[in-house]
Amino acid sequence: MPQTLPAPITLAPRVVVFDYGEVISREPSEADRASLLARAGVRERAEEFWTAYWEHRTGLDRGTTSIAEYWQAVAADLGVEWNAVDVHELWAIDHRGWLSLDPGTLGVLHALSAGGTRLALLSNAGADYSGWLRHGSFAPLFDRVFVSGELDLVKPDAAIYEHVIDELGIAASDFVFIDNKAENVEGAKAVGGDGHVFTDAASLEAWLRALV
What we know:
By secondary structure, the chain is α/β, with parallel strands linked by helices. Helix content is 50%, strand content 11%. The protein has helices spanning 30-40, 46-55, 57-62, 67-78, 84-97, 103-114, 130-135, 148-151, 158-168, 182-190, 201-211, and strands at 15-18, 118-123, 144-147, 175-179, 194-197. The chain has a 5-stranded parallel beta sheet, with helices on both faces. Helix 1 runs antiparallel to helix 5, helix 4 (67-78) packs across helix 5 and helix 6 (103-114) packs parallel to helix 11 (201-211). It is globular, with a radius of gyration of 18 Å. The two termini are 30 Å apart.
């Protein structure tokens, strides 16, 4: 059944900047996670795998660790060996897991766009996601797309928010940031912006409408 889009939301001159992972995208499904564990050959060591997976993610997101280096670091933590082909497949499975979109959030994005509100995207992600973020079907909604892996900066460092504010040509007080992690929203507030910790699209929409 087609989704009814929310009524327009007008917040100009403020610019609403969205995180991608688990805000616009859904988190990887259980099937996605199981597929990655199976290809890694560590089905029975899920907790160890996910600890290693996140432990090395900041370097990948900052752009200081290559895809191959990242997966080899995970392998080293687990005491396993993956060859170059293994790494290619692990990367592809992992990448696909982050491509499912939340229709509720997409509806909020369209409501903001319909109201003439400027939008931007700021994601902690490797540079390999930049094509999807800049050229996916939702990309035309955004004035600018900022990918941490291209900037050598990550949230919640103050410098990444200051860079975005400067590039958007706005006052810090007009910077509104949406992220699922409280520390990232607090980082935006620390430089003079405002923000909302995302839990679901309905709560986000209500919060944004209260700003009008």
